[in-house]
Amino acid sequence: MSCHNTSHASECVGGHNVRVALIGSPNAGKTTIFNGLTGYRAKVGNYPGVTVVQTQGTVDISGTEVIIEDLPGTYSLSPVSPDEQVVLDSLEGRLDEGGAPDALMVVADATTIERSLILVAQVLALGKPSLVIVTMLDELEKRGGYLDLDRLQASLGVPVVGVVGTKKLGIPEVKELLPNAENWPTPILLPPADPGERARWIDSVLESVLHVRPEGHKGSRLVDRILLHPVFGVATFLVVMFVFFQVIFSWAVPLQDAVTAFFDWLGDLVEEYVPWEVLAALLSEGVIAGVGTVLQFLPQIILLFLMISFLENIGYMSRAAFLMDRVMGRFGLEGRAFVSLLSSYACAVPGIMSTRTIPSSKDRIATILVAPLMTCSARLPVYTLLIAAFVPAVSVWGPIGSQGLVLFGLYLLGTFSAILGAAFVKRTFLKGETLPFYMEMPPYRIPGIKTIVAQCWDSSKYFVRKAGTIILGTSVLLWILLHIPVVTPPADLDEAGQVQYQLENSVAGSVGRFVEPVFNPLGFTWEINVALIGSLSAREVFVSTLGQISAAENPDSDTSVESALEAQTRPDGTPVYNAPTVAAMLLFFVYALQCMSTVAIMRRETGSWKYPIGAFVTYFCFAWVAAFIGNRVVTALTGG
Amino acid sequence: MDAFMKLDSLPVGHIGKVLKINGDREDPVGRRLSDLGFLDGTKVAVLRKAPLGDPIIFELRGYEMCLRHSQAERIDVRDEKG
Q: For the whole model, what pTM was predicted?
């Protein structure tokens, strides 16, 4: 199509491509449009040097390769931070890669057109071929508002397309226009840059499009009167938080048990029917136990992500951020960081990804750095195993038991450490930057089931992928390393002693014993060290590795990992898992960053190795010190 | 009689008309406030304050925006009551 223009004729020889930037404010429906145009085939990267994520999608439309660059949602093109500067730089072609886009698409929400026109004015003022996409027209009509698209096109001087994202209306029109993007008109009269003149320009545009402001969201106002009320609002917030944790702690348990039972059954099946003993052991102990350990948390993860996605889409997360802003402000963060940290209770990976909504780069990095301290669900198997096996179940006060209290204490410790950590980094190396705080309160919307399920699946996918790759790999590798080289144990040992000898002299056993000087002060044995090293890839590996080792060493005990651990003794005959050691292990897991997925996502979201490596080393040291102190304190308390 | 005041001290339920943004208009906060729609002559309604008094939700130009006191005090308004 665009080949008709002679000035671009040379580009038409041997394929033709157009780069179009997509600009819009948050909540304007930009993502829906991007997905509608590119069919969810997005490539995510970082702009050089800052934490702003760069998303690109490529579509082939009638022989023309159209590259759509999805810029981060913004209310303005006049940058107030390095992050926003880099976006403007990319629009103006000051970044090396690919040069400036050939054309611009700006998304404007029809229901808030009075504000959206400010961004439209700034985009048009760049003087590039432009297209305006107007969204939420159905909602505008429903709320009794009006705006004439033809008149808008006439008064702006660039093409205007109305899009209703949920009904896919307008997307085909945009697609038809895209290959010819370089030849979209530029406005003859650029909108004014001065804020005062711009206000008058907006007024005149609004008048010419016969704009009728839609009625306020009466329903939202009414709901907010309760949900943001000083008493009822805070009470609702606490109830929401309670339900949130109730799901983690108890509602998911039956589902979890079902998954565990399934994998146990599968393991037994393999041991029974796979003829070759070594292969059967590798499959049941390495593959099935390893993957099963992770997948048993899938029901819980899915439920959590469903809740987060629901709260987000219905509009409650902004309200939670509003209620918590003052509290978070105390620690140098803002309300939206609360939402990210809350998600990190499920998993730090989506928690860290959700920091993209935080405008300030320093707030974002501070939140990313402390998110791994929030007690994610991967710590749960470790905590529940150790607590169930070694914390005596006594009633402390009515229905409140000692085991629950210890678990709650670990959650609190992680949370407080995260918040204090954020306050610390914000007062030290992330100091400065006076970015204004602002946050839009979107009207409550009944979210589409499809959106929620899609988002939930997107996040859960990480978990499944982790189970299939990192954890499966580590688990199998550890199993092999525990069994090679095959050694001949001294003949005078009994059967259990022979297994023990084999494990101790395996590659993994040697490594575990090699690092003993580091972990001895914490009361850890080489078996724990092996599991700990394995768990650096993913925390859940700890449980399956300990299970593997102790089951092999104590073939007589029944199949549960707990009883196998309880049976473990040190060379002097005392139990391995005494109170000081268990306390040290729990504290180690509160702080250590044992998750390669988190390290990888930190690298992706900050665009640098500096933060993940720094966090890994710092948290390892923290973990060691906390475990050491825990060991000594408990030793003193128990009179050891 | 018209009452001039800073936006953060405008009582809940009142509507103010933006007179000007104080201080350097070209500094980041001032620039961002005007880009968010706090332009001269814009009517801003104070919807509610958070339980601890900060931040505050405003309605302007057909949408709801929440600001902290420290930003809202930059904006001079004329109180036009409810």
A: 0.81
Neighbour-count burial for A501-538, b at 16+ CB within 10 Å, e otherwise: bbbbebebbeebbeeeeebeebbbbbbbbbbbbbbbbb
Token reading at A594: 């044992």
CB contact under 8 A, B55 and A326: yes
Which pLDDT score, from 0 to 100, does residue A98 have?
A: 67
All residues of chain B having their beta carbon less than 8 Å from the beta carbon of residue A323 are: 50-51
Residue A313 in domain: no
- Residue A150: pLDDT above 80? yes
- The tens digit of pLDDT for each residue in A308-343 reads 888 888 889 889 999 999 999 888 888 889 888 988
Domain boundary among the residues A187, A208, A229 is at: A208
Final residue belonging to a domain, choices A172, A192, A208: A208
Chain A residues touching B59 at Cβ < 8 A:
216
C-alpha distance from B9 to closest chain A C-alpha (Å): 17
Which CATH number does the domain housing residue B14 bear?
Answer: 2.30.30.90
Confidence (pLDDT) at A13: 40
CB-based burial, A193-230: b 16+ in 10 Å, e otherwise: eebeebbebbeebbeebebebbebbeebeebbeebbee
Q: Is A88 on the interface with B (CB under 8 A)?
A: no
Q: Is A445 on the interface with B (CB under 8 A)?
A: no
Is the Cβ of A230 closer than 8 Å to some Cβ of chain B?
yes
CB contact under 8 Å between A435 and B28, yes or no, is yes
Residue A438 lies in a domain: no
Distance from C-alpha of B30 to C-alpha of B21, rounded to nearest angstrom: 6
On whether any CB of chain B is under 8 Å from the CB of A101, the answer is: no
Is the per-residue pLDDT at A92 higher than 90? Answer: no
> Taking Cα atoms as reference points, which of A228, A230, A215 lies closest to residue A111?
A215
Amino acid at A21: A
- Res A191 pLDDT > 90: no
Q: Which domain holds residue A501?
A: 453-637
- Is A475 domain-assigned? yes
pLDDT at A231: 92
Please state at what angle helix A541-553 crosses helix A379-390, rounded to 10 degrees. Answer: 40
Please report, for the domain that includes residue A21, its CATH number: 3.40.50.300
B67: containing domain: 3-79
For residue A467, tell me if it sits in a domain.
yes
Q: How many other C-beta atoms can be found within 10 angstroms of the C-beta atom of residue A238?
A: 10
In this complex, which of B28, B39, B51 lies closest to A233 when CB atoms are compared? B51
pLDDT, one tens digit per residue, over B48-59 is 999 888 899 999
What is the total count of domains within chain A?
2
Structural contact between residues A617 and A593, judged by C-beta atoms closer than 8 angstroms = no
In this predicted structure, the answer to whether residue A558 has a pLDDT above a threshold of 70 is: no
Structural domain tally of chain B? Answer: 1
Q: Which residues of A touch B55 (CB under 8 A)?
A: 322, 325-326, 335, 437, 439
